[in-house]
Structures are given as C-alpha cells and as structure tokens.
Amino acid sequence: MIKGFTFVELPVKNLESAIPFYRETLGLQVSYMDNVRKWCLFTIPGSDTGCALYQCTDSSICAEPNHSVHIVVQVENLETTIAALSAQGIETEPIRVHEGEHFLISGFLDPEGHVWRIWTPLACTS
C-alpha cells in the first residue's frame, strides 16, 4: 500500500525564523518556498524524502509541540553528527545502544520543540 514517505510536514510558529535551523544546522536544501501560504519544502541531499515547514495559524496546534511525533533520520556517523550539532549549540541526548536491533541512537529538539532522532547501524560507528 505505502510505497514510501515523500516528506514530513511540521508546524512552526514563525516560518522565516525556522528556516535557518533546517537549512544551515541540519544541511537540508530549500526546494520550494511559498511565501503566500507560508510553506517551505526542504530536500535531504541524496534522498527522495524531505521535510516541509508551514507557519501554523491554529493556536491549538501551535501552542505546544507534539512530543509524541518523532522525526527519525539515519546519519552516516552518529558521533560526528552529534559533534557538529554540539558545535552549533544543539544539546543532544546521550547515545543509546540498541544491540538487539543493531543500532545507536540519540536525539535533540529543534527550535520549535519537535523531537528529532538520529541513528546509525552499529557497523557504521567507527
């Protein structure tokens, strides 16, 4: 039924101020910008998926971020990614080892409070 995810859409309180985090901190590329509808689509370099931000106008949705939704992305090297985030002032969770599933995982909050999970297979840790 589902062939794959195209993009994840996230509400933000202020689109203009949210864009730099996704573009500069996470390295996503702006592929479409709609200034009238206050909507921006980012692509992940080398991937068919992306992330869209939209300026939220519904106060019930924008009041508090939904921490039950996690954006999970695979990275080449977890330690290198954490170091790059830390260098930009982003606090990450301690790395957790999931030996049974053969991966390492950490996480952080973006400026809007969305939960991001970053992971890598155990074989890719060195």
TrEMBL record:
In the UniProt record, the signal sequence range is none
Alphabetical list of InterPro entries matching this protein: Glyas_Bleomycin-R_OHBP_Dase, Glyas_Fos-R_dOase_dom, VOC_core
Cross-referenced Gene3D superfamilies: 2,3-Dihydroxybiphenyl 1,2-Dioxygenase, domain 1
Any idea where the VOC domain is?
A: 4-121
**Which SUPFAM superfamilies does the UniProt entry name for this protein?**
Glyoxalase/Bleomycin resistance protein/Dihydroxybiphenyl dioxygenase (SSF54593)
Please state what the protein is called: VOC family protein
The organism encoding this protein is Alicyclobacillus fastidiosus
